[in-house]
Amino acid sequence: MNKVFVTAMVLAIFSQCFSDLYSPEAWYSFRRDTLVFSAGVSDDTDERVFYELIQRDETGRPTTLFTRTVRPTEEKEWTLEFPAPKRDVVGKDALWVKETIGSANPKVYGPYGFIHTKLIETGDSALVFSGELRNFSLNINETYKFAHNRNGLIIALGNTEDNLTVSIDPANSKTAFLAFANRIIMYNAENKSVEFYYPERSIDSRTMAVQYRIRDWEGEMQVFETANGVVIFIPWFDLGVKYEPGRRFGYMLNNEKFAYPARASHHSPASWGNLILQ
User: In the chain, what are the domain boundaries?
Assistant: First the structure.
């Protein structure tokens, strides 16, 4: 399959009058009831500019949600507004804006996300742990636990026969799409092994579907095996943040049987919970 890895895709054959939808940038996450874009043309023109707000699902199948027509006047720039979708458009679903000026071939801008669901405000605590890392163990009824010290984040996983995936958003950005800064930790319960990844997002050049791949996350992370699982230590510099008590991280845990928080989606940090360094 022919794929191109880019942060934004713009398909265009330019007309004599150059048009542009220049804000917001691709991968932006809308959170309001009205989607607002900034657009304009380079020269005076009497040509109509026709816009379509399109939603594509994970296969790239398009559905036109709304249309708008603008006839440029003396102003070469304008604000373009669309009603927001009724549901979240996140993860592998995405919004696109198709722009056609006169009879020219169209341009397509995006992807964009929309977050309708209320964000999770409450958080879970990660307490300070000052002992030997391999001694940070789980209680018999725990499958995971977080802690921290001045040097890094500490995660204990275990007491389960099921594999676990921990996803972390160091910036707690609550965005519609996974991003490079997010981190993914996969725990294999059978052999107590741990693998570290980060996501790479892309647009399929044929279907225009949003896609993700995982890439190896290389760093100075440490893994200690315990009687009932593992302890993982991640230096702050490998998370790209400075140590600061009170800092919030976005996070979720999941496997084939469950997700925490219950409504969390692996591909949408907006649905993740909050981890607070106490």
Answer: 19-114, 124-277
**Helix or strand holding residue 183 (H, E):** strand 183-188
**37-95 tens-digit pLDDT:** 999 887 766 788 999 999 999 999 999 999 999 887 767 888 999 999 999 999 999 99
pLDDT in tens, 2-32: 433 333 444 433 335 567 899 999 999 999 9
- The domains spanning 19-114 and 124-277 adopt the same CATH topology: yes
Contact 55, 94 (CB under 8 A): yes
The pair of three-digit structure tokens given for residue 10, joined into one six-digit string:
């713009």
CATH T-level assignment (fold) for domain 124-277: Immunoglobulin-like (2.60.40)
Residue 130 has a CB neighbour count (10 Å cut-off) of 7
Q: What is the pTM of this model?
A: 0.88
Q: Tell me the per-residue pLDDT of 116-168, one tens digit each, with 9 for 90 and over.
A: 999 999 999 999 999 999 899 899 999 999 999 999 999 999 999 999 999 99
Q: Domain 19-114 carries which CATH code?
A: 2.60.40.10
Grouping H, G, I as helix, E, B as strand and the rest as coil, residue 237 is: helix
Query: How far apart (Å, rounded) are the C-alpha atoms in residues 145 and 158?
Result: 9
